[in-house]
Amino acid sequence: FCLENTDPRTRGRGIQLLSQVLLQCYSLLHEKEVLHLVLFYESRLQDHHLVIPSVLQGLRALSMCEVLSPGLAVSVLKAIFQEVHVQSLLQLDRHTVYSIITNFMSTREEELKGLGADFTFGFIQVMDGEKDPRNLLVAFQIVRDLIAKDYALGPFVEELFEVTSCYFPVDFTPPPNDPHGIQREDLILSLRAVLASTPQFAEFLLPLLIEKLDSELQSAKLDSLQTLTACCAIYGQKELQEFLPSLWSSLRREVFQTASEKIETECLAALHALSACLSRSVLSSDSEDLLDSFLSSILQDCRHHLCEPDMKLVWPSAKLLQAAAGASLRTYHRITRSVLPLLLEQYTKHTQSSQRRTILEMLLGFLELQQKWGHLEEDESTLLSLQAPVCSVVFSALTDSSVQLQLVAIKALTVLGSLQGFLSSSDLELVVDHLIRLALHEEDSQSSEAAMEAAGSLAPIYPKVFSGRMVPRLEEELQSGRAGKGESYHDHCSLRQRCLQALAAVSTHTSIVRETVPVLLQHLQKVQKGSEAGNTQDMVSVCQSLHRVALQCQQDVEGCWYFHQMVVPCLLAVAVQAAMQESTHTQLGKTLLEEEVLAAMIPVISAATTHLSPELAAQSVSHVVPLFLDGEVSFLPQNSFPCSFQPFGDGECLEAQRRLVALLMAFVCSLPRNVAIPQQEWLLRELLALSCSCNCPFTATTAAKCFAGLVNKHPAGQQLDEILQLAVNRMEPSLAEGPCRTQALTLLLWVTKALVLRYHPLSACLTDKLLGLLGDTELGPAAADGFSLLMAESPDVLHKGCHADVRIMFRQRFFTDNVPKLVQGFHGAGPDVKANYLKGLSHVLNHLPKPVLVTELPTLLSLLLEALSCSDHVVQLSTLSCLQPLLLEAPQIMSLHVDTLVTKFLNLTSSPTMVRAPPLPPCHTPLPHSLCCPDPCLFQAVRIAALRCAHALTSLPTPVLLPYKARVIRALARPLDDKKRLVRKEAVAARGEW
Amino acid sequence: LIRSINDPEHPLTLEELNVVEQVRVKVNDAESTVSVEFTPTIPHCSMATLIGLSIKVKLLRSLPERFKLDVHITPGTHASEHAVNKQLADKERVAAALENSHLLEVVNQCLSARS
User: Which one of B9, B59, B63, B67 would you mutate to disrupt binding with A, by most A Cβ within 10 Å of its Cβ?
Assistant: First the structure.
């Protein structure tokens, strides 16, 4: 009844109801019913315009029916195309039309194709003039399907292009608070997919792209270039032919003139794509080779610029040529044939090293491209025919006095070496000699490092040459004992250092490792025994070299096991021997037990252990643990020792042996988690006892770390609970009072860290204990510093690399659990211990991932600002280094406090002059940090950090800053005259920026 | 401080172009004076004033106020040496030049560090 009402509104409501019902139950309809309904709805399309939206809804429901009989889809679409003027409908209804089309396209492809080009034309009319981004996304998708599924476009290609290309380049800014979340980027990508979907558009699209490329708008240029690159993937010679000259001239102009790096990159990518596209096309015998003429024009325009290495256009030209050359092997040959001889000739023509460097850098760029094509082909390569001149140019650059030129030459050498079969064996020997010379005798450390690096990357390719020529030379230099004539002792030392570094650098192949490791170990033993005992630095260098070797052979199973077997027992043997000698009152060997040397050995053992397979590690652990627990020395080389080794025994003279717990820690804490440690309970008890009772801070800390490392990996269960209970029972009384409070605190910190990392329930209780200690006048500052230890990555134990149980986001969790308590504690604390809470807080914040910090910032900022006025310099420093990245990342929030920030930063930039008033010894001699209470370096660091923050302030919005400009510039004039150079440097940077 | 200033025309710094050299910079900390001689690339270089201005501005921004600055062309290396030196020595003209927003932008571009 409603459906036949004379009032269009009522009729509309009736149809709406019917459509709603259909939308719910379209899947239940039968074929006959559908037919009937379709006919009804089609006729309704002619009805009053108020009714149309509901009619379309109904049709949409029907378009989803599977039982729609053949022919109906076509007739529905025809009716819509004929009767409805889509663009005069509302957005939602237009969307309905697109949905109907999409539905039919996905289910009735064959029928629609039967419509031929009429369907395309109908659709063009439907979408012509569409403005809404939501609809456009759907419409673009339909056009893409039209093309991809090969619908007949007939004579309407140009119309279809027009109706889509009129949106190019997309200019759309989503309204704020847009609930649909359509970004400009979505539209750009979707339109690009349409435009670059068929070569048929080429004749219309390319002129459009060139036009937009010539426009002034940056975004239009970028979009055109990216679209061009996308098009090249499907275009061929035919499409491009006509437009190549103008495309090239536009690209050239952009690269030569643009100031924007982004546009340059896109231009080069487009040129690369164009050349690749042209090289892909198959040539018919009679047609002209477009690639050849295209490349000729590029060469013609760029070649002469290469001859002027002083001028601005050198690099753009070189980049253009390289982009084209990188497209295919053919383009590479074509371009290098012309360019390489030219560059070589230019190199000899120009004599200044800066010009030579530019030329060599360009040459290097072309050489690197050759790598992409893999091995050289005998007959074709231009490079092979130029082998002699290229080599002579590179070698001459290696001997040049300019460091910059040397560096480029070393890079070029690496590339040449990686081209299989390029260097002859005599050249190779020359290369090795050059590298040895640069690595050992070049004064500039940059060159020498680069040479070592190059040796390292070439060694795996030519292991024989390096192990046969370089290693013996290095060994010889290393053992040459006394300083040669005219060399000072210092020179000799640095030569030895270089030898050690080079030995490590070149150990990048298993066969070479087998040569170098014995040399290094031998040297270590020699230093330890030798008359020159006392040379700590030398030992540390050997350890650093061994560490580097260990890292290099970690990935290789066999090499890793070889290294482990060779090095770990040897280091242990040397150390044990030194400890024994110490206990029998000899002065020899003392060097080896210095903290610095032991600390250098830790990473070696750790790196040699972390990558072992569980079986091999188990084999090794069954030797090492008994060594420490039972003094079982039989597996060590040269194991005849004067007395027994018992690091956990009591006794005055065993102090030296106890220090070796550091090596035990390096080993057991790096084992994979599934390796069982023999007698673990016993070991844990001994470590616990040692860490609580030992007077030597180094030993106590190491024992605590070792204990923590084991506890972290210990499987959960009763055993773990027992051992933790034992630890707590030991810590509590000594924390409360007594001589061992510091040791107990260290143990508490490390155990807490081990448990926080693995989310152990006991960690909360231990953290609370730590929070309580912040209020302690004696231990408070140390406990506050401990928060930094808890949050930071520790270098030797308890990190992912040594297989520790580290849960993700433990920092965030610690933050949410404990920061409220810290803040509360701060408010409740007495004036003398307030600083401790601030210090702890700023340590926690400092290590928190920045995104988390930014969200929590508003609540914490006032506290941080208060921390800046705190007189403790560690707090100041830590707070400043926490604020600096925030200034860069959350300028909006920070601008609210700009007034306070400016004042505080400016005060701190010159603060030490006030603080320095009480007599502080100007501490020039490198005293150990702990001896000079407020470290003068700290003042400097605070000033530097404050200046960096002042610098970072410039990233706040300009309107916020302008009121302070004059004041800041005036205030920053003072640190320009600071006593310390590093401070002046920061001041110059900050003031310049302001 | 001035080695990394960019040349207005070339992609290189003043140091790389040998426009400024260490031997031609004299600093006397005790008397608070700084004297810089710079050598334009060619005798007719039209950018000599701009280069001089850039050096001067950089030093003004980076040195403590106690220093007296003297920036001039190495004698005998530029056609209108005297005129340029006079312009650079004139405080008011330097100040006026920095009021010109276009000129200031060019100078800032020369001073912006290449990272």
Answer: B63
pLDDT beneath 70, residues of chain A: 1-2, 282-288, 374-381, 481-490, 530-534, 582-592, 639, 650-653, 911-936
Amino acid identity for residue A101 in this structure: I
Nearest residue, CB atoms, B65 vs list A310, A315, A973: A973
ipTM field: 0.87
Of A310, A974, A991, the CB nearest to B10: A310
Question: C-alpha angle with apex A256: A252 to A260, nearest 5 degrees?
Answer: 110
pLDDT tens-place string over residues A452-495: 999 999 988 888 888 888 888 888 888 875 544 455 666 777 88
Q: Is A315 touching B (CB cutoff 8 A)? A: yes
Number of A/B CB contacts below 8 angstroms equals: 26
Say if residue A576 is exposed, middle or buried (CB neighbours under 10 Å; 0-12, 13-18, 19+): buried
- What number of other Cβ atoms are within 10 A of residue A388's Cβ? 10
Q: Give the residue from chain B lying closest to A358, CA to CA.
A: B12
pLDDT, position A746: 92
Question: Residue B69 belongs to what domain range?
Answer: 18-109
Q: Which of B4, B15, B61 to mutate to test the interface with A (most CBs of A within 10 A)?
A: B61
* Domains, chain A, with CATH or none: 555-674 (no CATH), 679-848 (no CATH), 857-912+935-993 (1.25.10.10)
Chain B residues with beta carbon closer than 8 angstroms to that of A311 = 10
CB contact under 8 A, A976 and B62: yes
Instruction: Give the nearest partner residue to B61 out of A310, A974, A992, using CB atoms.
Output: A992
Closest C-alpha to A526, from A563, A500, A552: A500
CATH of the domain at B80: 3.30.300
Residues in B closer than 8 angstroms to A358, CB to CB, are: none
The total of other beta-carbon atoms located within 10 Å of residue A262's CB is 12
- The domain total for chain B is 1
- State pLDDT tens for residues A409-444: 999 999 888 887 788 888 888 899 999 988 888 888
- pTM score: 0.75
Do residues A849 and A808 make contact, with C-beta atoms less than 8 angstroms apart? no
Question: CB B1 to CB A988 under 8 A?
Answer: yes
What is the structure's pLDDT at A10? 85
Q: Is A648 on the interface with B (CB under 8 A)?
A: no
The three state secondary structure string of A460-478 is: CCCHHHHHHHHHHHHHHHH
| Cβ–Cβ under 8 Å, residues A734 and A692 | yes
B111 with A992: Cβ contact below 8 A: yes
